[in-house]
Model the fold of this input.
Amino acid sequence: MSYSVGQVAGFAGVTVRTLHHYDDIGLLVPSERSHAGHRRYSDADLDRLQQILFYRELGFPLDEVAALLDDPAADPRAHLRRQHELLSARIGKLQKMAAAVEQAMEARSMGINLTPEEKFEVFGDFDPDQYEEEVRERWGNTDAYRQSKEKTASHTKEDWQRIQDEADELTRRFVALMDAGEPADSEGAMDAAEDHRQGIARNHYDCGYEMHTCLGEMYVSDERFTRNIDAAKPGLAAYMRDAILANAVRHTP
Done:
């Protein structure tokens, strides 16, 4: 039995453009073609796609994924064991970091000293103060919270407008990259993620790559973040999370 590219995209939760890209670079070449020349994927192709997506979720660049999957010395069970080990290590690291996580919802939800009219001008119908009590309870004893309170205490309406404009521009960059079919680990996406991290560090609190990765994970684990981010484009939160992870891997020795 074989499947069309549209069916496979639906099964796997990826875009048709992504499958075309995997075919173009030789990472996942469909086993068959229809009489009209359309791609047709076999069950074995789906197995390989599953392995690809496992490694992509773990932050492996596409060229490393190809090298791993095409290693003649490895078998499917070896791949599963390796992925299980990597996932277990990642889960353990995230659990450890969660116990001492030093970041807040978003710095714009802390230390907002604006009038109601000014808040509306800057943030629209989003009220950053609605999360303040939760933020204080969860992260009030962290360095990140203290740093953000100190930095934002002197922010003016113009400062918040500039920060919001920077955030909106980054959102437009990420959406444009998605629309262009750029993978989350492309140079453009990783550069956007790096600018996102530097903006947090510049305007709010120290944000290293581990902390940035935790923030990216929260974009998809907290439905409030996901809903807010995906308002710009469905799937944007997950794309940003993947780009943040890929950028962290790029900067990790």
